[in-house]
Amino acid sequence: MKLFDIDYDDSQLAAALDPSQWVRSQQKMVAAVEREMQATVERVKASTEFKDRTGLMRNTVTYEISVAGQDMIVRLYAPAPYSGYLEDGTAAHEIVPNKKKILRWTSNGNTYWAKKVSHPGTRARHILANAINLEKIAAAAGGAFVQQLKR
Fold first, then answer.
1. What is the DSSP code string of 26-65?
2. Do 80 and 118 share a domain, yes or no?
């Protein structure tokens, strides 16, 4: 599940350089953004915004950086099936049985039965959105570009 996209268009930067300079500059920008994204993933993994049961979301948060022509696309996501619910929350809803006639669950050693349950919803935690720092990513990419121009 994709949760966060950054689309970075650097066509004006590309126009200012010859092709070989542009390739080196783009490689430096990708490396700089990669370092910032690794730090972002570590911030998500260290987050106290949610309590782990299995550790699946915390351990699978990742990112992708792809370059297509003069566009750099950065994706931060967690492939856990419930990660969207943690990030964006859920509205209040009813839970009803799928295959059986009644719901059954155990909590604190007690067993409960019900035909339906009114779930109050889950608050949005914005774990990924809070961890990503767009200014740092832009500064990392821009700083790498400026360093390449000075050479």
1. HHHHHHHHHHHHHHHHHHHHT--SS--SS-HHHHH-EEEE
2. no
pLDDT in tens, 56-114: 999 999 999 988 877 788 889 999 999 999 999 999 999 999 999 999 999 999 999 99
**Spatial separation of the C-alpha atoms in residues 76 and 3, rounded to whole Å:** 6
Residue 68, C-beta contacts closer than 8 angstroms, at least 6 positions apart: none
Return the number of other C-beta atoms located less than 10 Å from residue 44's C-beta.
21
Domains contained in the chain, number: 2
Instruction: Report pTM.
Output: 0.73
Q: Are residues 84 and 96 in the same domain?
A: no
146 and 106 housed in the same domain: no
What range defines the domain where residue 109 resides? 92-123
